[in-house]
Amino acid sequence: MNDPVVRIPVGEWADAFISWLTSTFSWLFQLVKTVLEGAYDFLANALGAPPFYVVAVILVAIAFLARGWKLAAGSAVGLFVIYGMGLWSSAMDTLALVLLASFIALAIGIPLGIWAARNATVSRILRPVMDFLQTLPAFVYLIPTVIIFLTGAVPGIVATVIFAIAPGVRFTELGIRQVDSEVVEAGEAFGSSRGRILRQIQIPLAMPTIMAGVNQVIMLALSMVVVAGLVGAGGLGNDVVSALQRVRIGPGFEAGLAVVILAIFLDRVTAGLGERSPVARAAKASRA
Q1: pLDDT digits (tens, 9 = 90+) for 64-110
Q2: CB atoms within 10 A of CB 80
């Protein structure tokens, strides 16, 4: 009785489209896979090969520069807890995946956001696409990426980029649109080109909002770690999935705690860097 009178074969169309895509652009997907695998291996080795204390000191120094000694001290404690649980190598693999996926998402998302802010047609096209990407369940991204790239870190990176790109586009567009039009008109009155107005007026004034988007992209990328572990992406996600399959509470809790520590570290550091922009400091001084 639940069968529809007229069935729309959306699933078959999607299956046929992915099959066509895979067979037609196999050379391109292989090239993308090779490049992403190389970049991921390089970053994972750069973070995982040095002794624990070397990488930890660098991360603590970044935390100190971003927000002072309190965040540095908290980061040192958190990183030592990860090391003490024996999850340092997995945490560095996870950090490599998150940083690489976030970098790609921002490299695509910020230019798209700038384009959308300066072109109403592009904005109208991108808005439903971003709505679709943000509302589609995260697990759905994995199906086509596994078909195209098989298992490993690459499908996890691609799925994470698709899942996390929307805030980068939306916050960049919002930030540039919020720039006072009189300031832009003043730049035009002095004969500045559109590119110069973008570089020297709009982007600097929109930087606090853009940094909020950077923060959201990184947080969404980190939230995909466990999902990416289902396709063998490695890192802490793999530890959580392994603990879930064997119903082992202890290792699962430890891996989850390590993800939380990394999330707090990345959130506070990116928020701190956003607050250090000249516009954010000027706004803070005017409120004081």
Answers
A1: 998 888 889 999 999 999 999 888 998 999 999 999 999 999 999 99
A2: 15
Q: Read off φ and ψ for residue 231, nearest 5 degrees.
A: -105, 20
HEC-encoded secondary structure of 224-285: CHHHHHCCCCCHHHHHHHHHHHCCCHHHHHHHHHHHHHHHHHHHHHHHHHHHCCHHHHHHHH
> Any idea which fold 25-286 has?
MetI-like fold (1.10.3720)
Closest to 92 (Cα-Cα) out of 69, 65, 58, 141: 58
Give the gyration radius of the chain's Cα atoms: 22
Q: Where are the domains of the chain?
A: 25-286
Alpha helices in the chain (DSSP H): 10-24, 26-48, 52-67, 69-84, 88-118, 120-135, 138-149, 153-177, 181-189, 194-197, 203-223, 225-229, 235-245, 249-275, 278-287
Residue 225: name the closest of 164, 144, 166 by CA: 164
Structure tokens at 65: 């520069």
The pTM of this model reads 0.86
Burial class (CB in 10 A: 0-12, 13-18, 19+), 48: middle
